[in-house]
Design a protein that fits this description.
Keywords: ATP-binding, Nucleotide-binding, Transport. Residues 420-434 have a biased composition (Acidic residues). Residues 450-470 have a biased composition (Basic and acidic residues). With 470 residues, the chain is an alpha/beta fold. Among the domains are: 3-112 and 192-274, Rossmann fold (3-Layer(aba) Sandwich), CATH 3.40.50.300; 318-410, no CATH class. The chain has helices at residues 3-7, 73-80, 103-110, 120-123, 130-140, 146-159, 176-188, 206-223, 234-240, 258-263, 268-275, 325-345, 348-355, 365-373, 380-394, 398-409, 412-415; strands at 25-36, 47-58, 62-66, 88-93, 96-97, 113-116, 194-198, 226-230, 243-248, 251-257, 438-439, 446-447. The strands form two sheets. An eight-stranded mixed sheet has the order 6-7-8-3-9-10-12-11, with helices on both faces. It has a four-stranded antiparallel sheet with strand order 2-1-4-5, with helices on one face. Helix 5 runs parallel beside helix 7 (176-188). The chain is elongated, with a radius of gyration of 25 Å. The protein starts with a helix and ends in a 23-residue tail after the last strand. It binds adenosine-5'-diphosphate. Residues 36, 47, 49, 67, 69-75, 298 line the site of adenosine-5'-diphosphate.
């Protein structure tokens, strides 16, 4: 762990962990967006893989990036080193906005920032010797003389725990762990300052994961490297990262010092993600939150808070505050089912079915009601709304039914983005505009959640909406 991490809890961080003036900051990311343009079938609707993120990376630190598959981690990592082009926003490395670079300036800058990929098998060319693979970036940049290149590569093989003799061997002669060491050596050839590690040990046997992690930590210390560490294995993240950013549907939901975030998550999404880690001591008490459903498509993200459609701590409208938790959960499930159908109707297979003149097959709204509310006592006020929604759905207008249910049972979580949207329009702002996250601890940890608007702790029993999930 870097010295920076040990200092993160100081009072000066109290103001803002992403302070613009912080001289320790190497990378400043502001309102970064990376969209993949849609094709004909979706009428050009882009996939919003990264949808407006702002954060800093300090020199010498390891920032972890976690979140479910498909939430945009790789896209963010790739955009930071310009393997993907940003759709909007800024990425400043030591003050230079690298999204504006092109041609030789970009090529020159690229030496500073490299990436280690998850799968060492597909990232190494089996027809080249180890020496050629590791030397290639030096050849591309026409670095010194061929003799000096060879010498440099052999030293690098030493550095990553391989042998100089391996220079003339081929990738297939090495184990998975050794191949990842080769990938790391190649990454180091141009002496970068910043490395994106994209699931660097996920494809390796558990027994060699620790060796590669140790190597990465040693290299960081030796060369003063700064890492963005993308991983789904949260125990590895806890071990290696100084700070962690938790991503959901292209947004950062919470970012802050690792230990603090793991031991006392502020955001319901972080809480859910962490509660999925198996507990070594089965008798240990743990608040468990199980997530319902699957993340929405980044092509059609929900309005309001990105997590609102799955959040177990979604704020209820005041008139339903005292509604039975079980019934509230079923109402949420109903809306999720209807949303899922709405989404499915947009899927490629259904478009094709439509083109072929076939109807997609769904259960009727009455079957869904029987399944969800058959055993429930439903208060008359709720029943009236359900009846109206069923009427609309039976008439083929499920979207209107969904809207009706949303208007009645929806809340601030779905209607508005958590704080800050207003400030984003402030043309007089001197600093780059940041989403107004809530600072939830003296270290400057930030979280994106409507629950922080009041001082209510979302984990208090009266705030957790589905008590089966605790
Ligand atoms: P993660 O690394 O968290 O698994 P990714 O960044 O790979 O997430 O993907 C984020 C979203 O962007 C996903 O919905 C994925 O399908 C989509 N995506 C990734 N790469 C492309 C691409 N080249 N073209 C279109 N969509 C993409």
């Amino acid at each position: 762990m870097s010295q920076n991490a040990l200092e993160t809890g100081t009072a000066e961080a109290d103001v803002d962990v992403d302070s613009h003036q912080d001289s320790d900051v190497m990378v400043e990311v502001r309102d970064l967006r990376t969209y993949y343009e849609g094709d004909g079938l979706f009428g050009g609707t882009p996939v919003k893989a990264v949808d407006g993120v702002s954060f800093d990376i300090k020199r010498g630190e390891t920032l972890g990036l976690v979140g479910e598959s498909g939430c945009g981690k790789s896209t963010l990592g790739r955009t930071l080193i310009q393997l993907e082009s940003a759709t909007g926003g800024e990425i400043r490395f030591d003050g230079t906005d690298i999204t504006m670079l092109s041609g030789t300036d970009l090529k020159e800058w690229r030496r500073n920032a490299q990436m280690v990929f998850q799968d060492p098998d597909s990232s190494l060319n089996d027809r080249m010797t180890i020496g050629e693979i590791v030397r290639e970036p030096l050849d591309v940049h026409d670095w010194k003389t061929p003799r000096e290149r060879r010498q440099h590569v052999k030293e690098l093989l030493d550095t990553v725990g391989l042998q100089r003799e391996h220079y003339y061997r081929y990738p297939h002669q090495f184990s998975g762990g050794q191949r990842q060491r080769i990938g790391i050596a190649r990454t180091l050839t141009l002496e970068p300052e910043f490395i994106v590690l994209d699931e660097p040990v996920s494809a390796l046997d558990v027994s060699v994961q620790a060796e590669v992690i140790n190597l990465l930590e040693d290299l960081q210390e030796e060369f003063g490297l700064t890492y963005l560490f993308i991983a789904h294995d949260l125990s590895v993240v806890r071990h290696i990262c100084d700070r962690v950013a938790v991503m959901y549907l292209g947004n950062i939901m919470e970012i802050g010092p690792t230990e603090e975030l793991f031991s006392n998550p502020a955001n319901p999404y972080t809480h859910s993600l962490l509660s999925a880690i198996p507990e070594p001591d089965p008798t240990a008490h743990k608040d468990r939150i199980t997530l319902q459903g699957t993340p929405p498509s980044p092509r059609f993200p929900p309005s309001g808070c990105p997590f609102s459609t799955r959040c177990p701590a979604r704020i209820r409208p005041p008139e339903y505050q005292d509604l039975d938790n079980e019934l509230w959960h079923q109402l949420d499930t109903l809306r999720e089912v209807l949303r899922e159908r709405d989404r499915t109707e947009k899927s490629v297979t259904d478009r094709i079915r439509e083109l072929l003149g076939k109807e997609p097959h769904f259960g009727t709204i009455d079957e869904i009601y029987a399944e969800l509310f058959g055993d429930q006592a439903v208060p008359p006020a709720v029943e009236d709304v359900l009846d109206d929604a069923a009427e609309l759905a039976r008439g083929g207008n499920e979207r209107a039914a969904l809207d009706l249910l949303g208007a009645e049972f929806g809340s601030v979580c779905e209607g508005h983005e958590p704080d800050g949207a207003a400030e984003a329009d402030d043309a007089d702002a001197e600093e780059p505009v940041e989403p107004d996250y809530h600072v939830v601890s003296p270290s400057g940890r930030r979280s994106l959640c409507h629950r922080h608007d009041s001082d209510a702790d979302y984990r208090k029993p009266e705030h957790v909406l589905d008590d089966r999930h605790r």
